[in-house]
Amino acid sequence: MPNNSYEDFLYDEDQRLHSVYEVQKEYEQNNGDISKYRDKMLCPECKRAKLRFTHKTSERRAFLSTFPTSNHEKGCSYNYDLASNRAVKQFVATLTDEQVHDRLEAMLNTLLPRYRRDNENAVNAEQENPFVIDTGARNHQLNRRAISRKSMNRWFDKADENNIFLFYGKVRLSVEETKTKKGKRYRLIVKTKRGVEWIQKTRIFRGMAKDAIDENTTYDLAVMGHLEFYNILPQIVTESWTSILYREARRKEETIEYIL
Length: 260
Ligand SMILES: [Zn+2]
Known about the structure:
This protein is an alpha+beta fold. The chain has four helices and 14 strands. It has helices at residues 20-29, 85-93, 97-111, 253-256, and strands at 8-11, 16-19, 41-42, 51-54, 63-66, 132-134, 144-146, 149-151, 164-180, 183-194, 197-207, 219-230, 233-238, 244-248. The chain has a five-stranded mixed β-barrel with strand order 9-10-11-13-12. It has a three-stranded antiparallel β-sheet with strand order 2-1-3. A hairpin with a 2-residue loop joins strand 9 (164-180) and strand 10 (183-194). The longest helix has 15 residues, at 97-111. The relative contact order is 0.13. Zinc ion is lined by residues 43, 45-46, 49, 72-73, 76, 78.
């Protein structure tokens, strides 16, 4: 499947990230005129390829795709089609716990850099892009695919159920304990910031792992997993018990997050 998984784009006018929903809103309020954005939407990763907008219908969500005559930087993960769930599962199964950790850390460094040097050369042909995986050589050609990503600040909906994503974002966490016949089990409650408040967004199954969480600390979180809905509540099931990484976010990050 072609990689139209952009959630954000770099707006050439202000050099900040904006969301596809913002363009959809403009489309609706302005009788389909989105000239404000046309030719000014760039790939959020390599900041080079131009993107175009396809509006929402009753059948599908609005989305962004690469303009046909426009190219990404060589190392950009949007050069590749999206990996299937099977390919991601197979890939994760070949990694050691440490390799999973390193990969999640590299992803966080790209998406939510703590220090400027974290994402220097993040998109560089010489360097491995953490979102790109090899899915096995075919006809002596490397076969590469990209892992989808989903911000914790975006809408989780039923259409996403069972697709594997790298979920990421700035969050607050707390631990929920449940008693089962087999003993205690834990979940992480994930909250995202809306306005000035931290609101529950989702939960993550942790099995027997009890995380040491400070509820007043803001964390950068990366989780490889898929969504399952219980009633209307989305929960994330991790691909393996180790495919989660959280680290203390830098202070004031909320205000600098979207300035590139
Ligand atoms: Zn790109």
